[in-house]
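Here is the promised in-class demo. Please do not try to memorize the tokens; focus on the logic of going from shape to residues.
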């Protein structure tokens, strides 16, 4: 089986993408999705967050929610607002946001390659979230949430994709968040074959975001079985060159000082970090540097270099901060479960950290330098996993751009 394959994508009819495209399902709460979808009866949120069409008190895991998703996707298809391409295609998807431009390939990625770790992972998954994705995919008989993948240096792939974008696009929509989404349909058999061969030559590609979606696809592949060439043995993906991908910082807030006074905490931190007061909010400019906001004052922290191990996980900034400050001093050993810690994506800025500490709900905040794609890939290559909340990708892929339906027959 090839690493990737073209497929007959289900996508918005010409002229309707602006009313269909929606933020990914996992960045909005149910209440936020209801507000976002007001006055937008064709928004993809009615498929990805279908509880918005049901009573406010319903659980998002209620069986009626998944049934509603299936009903809503069928309705958009019956109205011809979502249409399926006549032949298997690849799709080139470009996101433009501020100074970031990312151009990747939408493809059906091989579940077998995922299962054999040729599509590399770097995160643990939670069964409840996997179960949710399995039930949603089965309800709509499609994969509607793409997995964001990264491919290593491949100039020939880059050039082929760039060549596709030199012709007119098939979709061009700017969301209310300022992200521009463009799509080109790749129908040329020669280009499709070359792209397939070039990806087959790669030893590995890497999951950047979407571990629960890919894990759910693996479970569905196993449960459905049958012809190994069937499309349900693939999962919807958008594969970007790793050097174009933008990871933002993922910052930390802690509710209390674990019994330390401000002075004693500063003294304890100084045993492993160089600590300097700062007149302005600290957004670290390089790795191994951190910002700390405590008692109305920003500090610059730099970890003692002798404490940085030669290990792809332990040398990450998120690990260094956890291993030498948050866990030993603030007694937070399991950030997945401990309610004394919270995480703030860098898109909100370090000002958000200061605001939340000043509000009185949190005692101390830490700003970090973003994890690099090279570091993420090194962790995946080592077979290890990243600490929780290590990466925040922007811009986000929209839901509804292209979906992979399990019915790939013509007619």
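The designed amino acids, position by position:
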């Amino acid at each position: 089986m090839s690493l990737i394959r073209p497929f007959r994508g289900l996508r918005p009819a010409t002229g309707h993408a602006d009313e269909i495209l929606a933020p990914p399902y996992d960045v909005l709460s149910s209440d936020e999705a209801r507000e976002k979808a007001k006055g937008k009866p064709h928004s993809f949120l009615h498929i990805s967050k279908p509880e918005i069409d049901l009573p406010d008190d319903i659980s998002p895991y209620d069986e009626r929610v998944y049934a509603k998703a299936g009903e809503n996707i069928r309705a958009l298809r019956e109205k011809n607002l979502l249409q399926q391409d006549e032949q298997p295609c690849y799709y080139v998807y470009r996101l433009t946001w501020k100074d970031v431009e990312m151009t990747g390939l939408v493809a059906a990625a091989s579940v077998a390659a995922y299962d054999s770790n040729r599509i590399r992972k770097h995160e643990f998954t939670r069964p409840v979230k996997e179960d949710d994705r399995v039930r949603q995919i089965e309800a709509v008989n499609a994969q509607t949430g793409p997995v964001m993948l990264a491919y290593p240096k491949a100039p020939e792939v880059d050039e082929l994709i760039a060549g596709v974008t030199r012709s007119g696009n098939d979709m061009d929509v700017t969301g209310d968040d300022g992200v521009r989404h463009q799509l080109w349909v790749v129908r040329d058999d020669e280009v499709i074959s070359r792209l397939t061969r070039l990806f087959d030559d790669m030893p590995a590609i890497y999951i950047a975001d979407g571990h629960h979606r890919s894990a759910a696809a693996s479970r569905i592949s196993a449960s459905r079985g049958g012809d190994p060439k069937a499309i349900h043995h693939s999962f919807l993906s958008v594969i970007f060159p790793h050097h174009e991908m933008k990871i933002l910082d993922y910052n930390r807030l802690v509710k209390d000082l674990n019994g330390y006074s401000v002075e004693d905490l500063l003294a304890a931190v100084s045993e492993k970090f160089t600590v300097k007061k700062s007149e302005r909010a600290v957004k670290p400019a390089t790795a191994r540097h951190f910002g700390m906001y405590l008692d109305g004052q920003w500090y610059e922290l730099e970890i003692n270099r002798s404490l940085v191990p030669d290990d792809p996980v332990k040398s990450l900034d998120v690990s260094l901060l956890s291993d030498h400050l948050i866990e030993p001093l603030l007694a937070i050993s399991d950030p997945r479960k401990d309610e004394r810690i919270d995480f703030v994506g860098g898109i909100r800025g370090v000002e958000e950290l200061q605001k939340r500490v000043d509000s009185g709900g949190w005692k101390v905040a830490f700003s970090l330098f973003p994890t690099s794609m090279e570091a993420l890939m090194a962790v995946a290559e080592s077979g290890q996993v990243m600490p929780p909340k290590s990466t925040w990708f922007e811009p986000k892929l929209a839901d509804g751009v292209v979906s992979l339906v399990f019915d790939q027959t013509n007619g």
